[in-house]
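Supplementary Note 3. Input sequence used for the single-chain structure prediction.
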Amino acid sequence: MLFRPNNWFVFVTLLHSGLLIFQIHAVQPIELAIFGGVANFASILFIPHAVRVIVAWLLGPKALLALVPSELIVTFCYSTQNIYDPTCYLIPILSASSAVIAFEVLKAVKINVFPGAGRTKEWRWVVLAGFLAALFISTTIIYLNGDATAPISGSGIFTRSLFGNMTGLLVSLLVLLVSLKYIKNTLQL
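The predicted structure, written as discrete structure tokens, is reproduced below.
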């Protein structure tokens, strides 16, 4: 069966890849029509960021085993960048790693929010980790894309990327929480 607990890798890879492809085919064309070329660098609703954050929260560094290949595969299938350009590899790898890095930074400063026995789930720490990850990847995109973003202001792309990652995370968490509450009430658990 595809969704057994030991097949988390397949589930995460398919979910993350599917959301990245959905972003490219459904969200990005709408944003390009409304906002123009800036949508090539940053979205105002980037839902795949939520998968990165939630999976990194649930699985820790092990999440990289599914997120990195997913990002690389989608990048190679849809990117218009030269495959010999190192940024073609760095941006997807750092994007996939951003949430894991954020959770590890929180853990290093004694804020361990990974789920575990006896720990309460505090969504504000998950959102904080998502913000740190969004901050990291937004900065990385500006730094690594350099000249490619020249027609558009770096601060505009940074702000848009940060906003898009956070709205994607918050909207996804809201949908997830409402769905779980609905399921719980429906099943009377």
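The chain has a mean pLDDT of 85. The longest helix spans residues 154-187.
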